[in-house]
């Protein structure tokens, strides 16, 4: 016979989960409505709106729980990497204007891959040298290398909401392309660092790390292209559309997600795989489905990506007030703010160290009328200063276990990451519209 207490407890947990999900979905709806009402506001966008609503909600939950929690849901980094990240990156590849992307592919690759590696080196070395004074004893060499990857991941969502793809196609293509390649490179670097043997670092170990990095990029890209071509072949040969457009859409969704999971299963870069799968699908698979499926897929993929991005920023806003993490840093948010200031400075230097040299190198190979002007280089540099969902997810993966922080040093890095993300999204992104408009009008 079933235990009544166990049944009652199970019912209670179920009701609690349903209430939490209901409240969170309601907040997502609120974010969409307010974001729509503020669409014409030059100082706000969906990202900032979700972040502000998350912070306000965190304050309310904190007050109701009497300082015990600021969350409605508990974040798990696996939730981000398995469910939220794939639709965002796949949609980026699916919606990209391929002509502009591949026309500027070399420059995008230099900014997104080489630039990220330069930024990673500067932030890793800088944090290792400058954070020593804070005596963060629980951090090892692997953690400092992970910090380099965490803060090398940009978030160009705010910039893309300001730039017009038709009015500034070159600038949009470079910022968008760099953002996607940067995210992929950051995660590949993070995985490479996590799997590397850092007990004895020498020239050979560094070379092996770089070789592993190149291997991950090439194999992940090949898997994504293969998955996209396979989906096009299946849909073309079987012609699902003669019976049901639902099957066409379902096979596209599942094949894209399958490519991501296969990459993760093989310890490759799922983000790079699903991005190139999206590009191939938009070029081949999309033209083999019926007209109604073409319209549906574009809107369906964009909608899933939008919801995932809103979810992340909403949660980051609430997590900014996580009382447990702030208690673990001994009630001294000043130190976390100092660390965040150092990290922001390293981000500034890291961006400048590769944006302007790579732009100069790119201009040497461009026609006179296609060269990157200095003001465009400034926008590319500025647009990469923001840190967002990928940085938060990597920080959670490195410094938490199922969303829980157990060491003071790790808690300090999480709180510092939150400050960087909130500041860069809230302040840098807030100034973005006026800044870009003033530069482009000069």
Commentary on this structure:
The chain has 442 residues and is mainly alpha-helical. 76% of the residues lie in helices and 0% in strands. It is built from 18 helices and no strands. It has helices spanning 4-37, 46-64, 77-95, 98-103, 105-130, 141-150, 157-162, 169-195, 203-238, 245-265, 270-283, 291-319, 323-328, 333-364, 374-383, 389-399, 408-428, 432-441. It is globular and about 65 Å long. The N and C termini lie far apart (78 Å). Residues 5-12 have low confidence and may be disordered.
The class by helix and strand makeup works out as: mainly alpha
Number of continuous helical runs: 18
Unreliable sequence segments: 5-12
Sheet with the most strands?
A: none
The shape, in one word, is globular
Helix content: over 70%
Q: What is the number of E strands?
A: 0
Distance between the ends: 78 Å
Nearest-integer average pLDDT: 79
- Using only CA atoms, what is the Rg? 22 Å
The arrangement of helices and strands along the chain is HHHHHHHHHHHHHHHHHH
Range of strand content = under 5%
Architecture blueprint of SSEs:
Layout: H1 4-37, H2 46-64, H3 77-95, H4 98-103, H5 105-130, H6 141-150, H7 157-162, H8 169-195, H9 203-238, H10 245-265, H11 270-283, H12 291-319, H13 323-328, H14 333-364, H15 374-383, H16 389-399, H17 408-428, H18 432-441
């Amino acid at each position: 016979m079933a235990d009544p207490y166990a049944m009652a407890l199970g019912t209670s947990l179920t009701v609690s989960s349903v209430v939490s999900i209901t409240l969170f979905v309601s907040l997502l709806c609120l974010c969409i409505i307010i974001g729509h009402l503020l669409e014409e506001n030059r100082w706000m966008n969906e990202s900032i709106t979700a972040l502000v609503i998350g912070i306000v909600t965190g304050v309310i939950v904190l007050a109701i729980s009497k300082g015990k929690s600021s969350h409605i849901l508990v974040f798990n980094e696996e939730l981000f990497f398995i469910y939220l990240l794939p639709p965002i990156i796949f949609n980026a590849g699916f919606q990209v204007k391929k002509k502009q992307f591949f026309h500027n592919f070399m420059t995008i690759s230099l900014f997104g891959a080489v630039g990220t590696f330069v930024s990673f080196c500067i932030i890793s070395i800088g944090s290792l040298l400058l954070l020593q004074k804070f005596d963060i004893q629980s951090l090892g060499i692997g953690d400092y290398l992970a910090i380099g990857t965490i803060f090398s991941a940009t978030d160009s969502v705010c910039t893309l909401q300001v730039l017009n793809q038709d009015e500034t196609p070159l600038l949009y293509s470079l910022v968008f392309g760099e953002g996607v390649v940067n995210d992929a490179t950051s995660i590949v670097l993070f995985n490479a660092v996590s799997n590397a043997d850092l007990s004895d670092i020498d020239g050979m170990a560094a070379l092996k790390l770089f070789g592993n990095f190149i291997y991950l990029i090439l194999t992940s890209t090949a898997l994504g292209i293969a998955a996209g071509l396979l989906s096009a072949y299946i849909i073309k040969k079987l012609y699902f559309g003669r019976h049901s457009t639902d099957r066409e859409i379902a096979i596209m969704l599942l094949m894209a997600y399958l490519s991501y999971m296969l990459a993760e299963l093989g310890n490759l870069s799922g983000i790079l795989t699903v991005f190139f799968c999206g590009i191939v699908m938009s070029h081949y698979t999309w033209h083999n489905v019926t007209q109604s499926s073409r319209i549906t897929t574009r809107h369906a993929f964009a909608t899933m990506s939008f919801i995932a991005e809103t979810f992340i920023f909403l949660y980051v806003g609430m997590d900014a007030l996580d009382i447990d993490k702030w208690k673990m840093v001994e009630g001294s948010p000043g130190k976390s703010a100092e660390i965040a200031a150092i990290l922001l400075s390293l981000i500034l230097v890291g961006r400048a160290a590769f944006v302007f040299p790579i732009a100069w190198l790119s201009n040497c190979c461009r026609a006179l009328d296609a060269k990157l002007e200095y003001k465009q280089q400034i926008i590319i540099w500025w647009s990469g200063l923001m840190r967002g969902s990928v940085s938060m997810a990597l920080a959670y993966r490195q410094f938490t276990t199922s969303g829980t922080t157990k060491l003071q040093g790790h808690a300090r890095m999480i709180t510092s990451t939150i400050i960087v993300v909130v500041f860069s999204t809230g302040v840098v992104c807030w100034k973005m519209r006026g800044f870009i408009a003033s530069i482009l009008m000069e």
